[in-house]
Ketoreductase domain-containing protein
Amino acid sequence: MPSVVAPLMLHGRVAIVTGGAGGIGSAVSKHLAALGARVAVAYVGDPAPAKQLVSGINSGDTTGSPPRAIAVEADVSDASQVRALFDAAAEAFGGEIHILVTAAAVLDFSYPPLADTPESSYDAMFGANAKGTFLCLREAANRITRDGGRGRIVTFSSSGVGSLRPGYSAYAASKAAVEVMTKILARELRGTGITANVVAPGSTGTPMFYNGKSEEEAARYIAEAPLGRLGMPEDIAPLVGFLASDAGGWVNAQVIRCNGGTI
């Protein structure tokens, strides 16, 4: 009898996770590695979290070569660094790239209303969230394997796109752009076997969520949640793993709200 687990496994596949050492990104990186993928963890800035994450993933790998995971510094708003990221993953893991997950994101933690949003804040959010995703999608469309229908793209939006919560205008707009680009790309990749989907988490208990919020504000988000708690990165990662696997191969051009029922 065939195993029901086998379609979820990612043995022999190579994944790139941007923002791969962040709150949700680190959970995704660990989950994909646990499913058997080799993972390139992309980070920007302080290398310590990425290196610690990669060390932890590799500590359980007895094969040694190639490693289960590598850390690669890459600013996703820079096309040359995105190309270098894909090059590094291909070189480290044998040439083919099968999975792209774009978890890198920027948010203005002062949550300004649109009338008070600085142009620099808008540029930073659109640079990382919209342009960064665009550059990664463009590279993936040309680099992800088209052999055997194993190519998978998973981008990240936010349930905030639909909530119209004050203070999130530029951020939500940048994430709406991600949704549109991903769904169009899925159609443009017709015939390649590559799927492209969007995961849109709700409020998730990461440092990014708590930054700039008082305890009272954070408590209001929890009170609004039908399940009585915030999401956790470990709630999001299994959905990404499913979409990256053979089991998720019939899901394409979708935006999946992973938010515990929160609007």
Residues 119-143 form the longest helix (25 residues). Residues 6-257 form a domain with the Rossmann fold fold (CATH 3.40.50.720).
